[in-house]
Amino acid sequence: MTVLDFEYAPALKVPDSFDPERDLTICVRRGDLIVPEPGRIWHSGMHDLVENQRVQIGRLNGRLLRCVDVPDVPEGWASLGLRDYLLNSDEQSFRVAGLSVQIMNWFRQQNFCPQCGNALEFTENDRALQCAYCQYRDYPRVNPCVIVSIRRGDEVLLAQSHRMRSTGIYSCLAGFVEAGESLEEAIVREVREEAGIDVGDIRYVGSQAWPFPHQLMLGFVAEYRSGELQPDTREIADLGWYRADCLPKIPPHQTIARQLIDQALRSD
User: Fold this and answer.
1) Domain extents for the chain?
2) How much is the pTM?
3) Which residue from 102, 54, 84, 124 is spatially nearest to 211, judged by alpha carbons?
4) How far apart are CA 163 and CA 110, in angstroms?
5) Quick one: which of 18, 73, 74, 179 has the fewest CB in 10 Å?
6) Residue 60 backbone phi and psi in degrees, to 5
């Protein structure tokens, strides 16, 4: 795996020092990556690119990195969905790709001030857009979500959503944090709503940016306490307890979901 040295950029405007021959560009269109060949998502030598909008992302291995929204797929290139890229990429590459798509999606959708209706403009030293008239500032949207792997003895609870049924993948339960909730309260509520059971001994494990479209996944492991499985059939296609030796298809290793499943199945 190639080691990537990514450095955050505190401003959105692409600097005048950007050199399209040397520096790097990620192309996107309608939320998809636009690539010249499988597995290669950032490119140099992009001096004649037709573009709608551009934003600075940061530095990658010492070179400036920008994201460009293109109106069409160039001849010989292809459109690659971010979820498809996730299945075949490493964690570092997916992080850079996801950040780029997430920032560009927000930038394309947030053109005008929600308070007074005037156009939003770049700020000098902040990853934000600002209204010159009323000084309102808008930042990239981030929605906190909890995701939890639930253990019952040597078993782990896995669910398949209707949306993921075509992939065959089973994963952890997850949901958005509501206003006024703690993360632990959100887990208890989501598990009860989606699976009909109660959990306890909730322990934080880690987090992952999840650009579908702008979530921050906060990962936990919890212990089963009581109740019979009663899946919410509006969201859950299948739900069950699984041991390590009979797992269904689960998410790839670079996802927080897979890390939580592996941890829940690990003996204490």
Assistant:
1) 6-109, 110-140, 143-265
2) 0.90
3) 102
4) 28
5) 179
6) -125, 115
- Render pLDDT for 204-250 as a digit per residue (tens, 0 to 9): 999 999 999 899 999 999 999 999 999 999 999 999 999 999 999 99
**Interacting residues of 88 by C-beta distance below 8 A, sequence separation 6+:** 38, 39
For the chain, list residues with pLDDT below 70: 1-2, 267-268
From the list 234, 221, 225, 212, the residue with the least C-alpha distance to 260 is: 221
C-alpha distances in Å from residue 105, one per residue of 1, 24, 109, 123, 212: 28, 19, 6, 18, 11
Same fold, 6-109 and 143-265: yes
CB 6 within 8 A of CB 60: yes
What pLDDT, on a 0 to 100 scale, did the predictor assign at position 267? 61
Nearby residues of 118 by Cβ (< 8 Å), 6 or more positions away:
112, 131, 132, 133, 134
Residue type, 51: E
**Class level of CATH domain 6-109:** alpha beta
- What fold, for 143-265? Nucleoside Triphosphate Pyrophosphohydrolase (3.90.79)
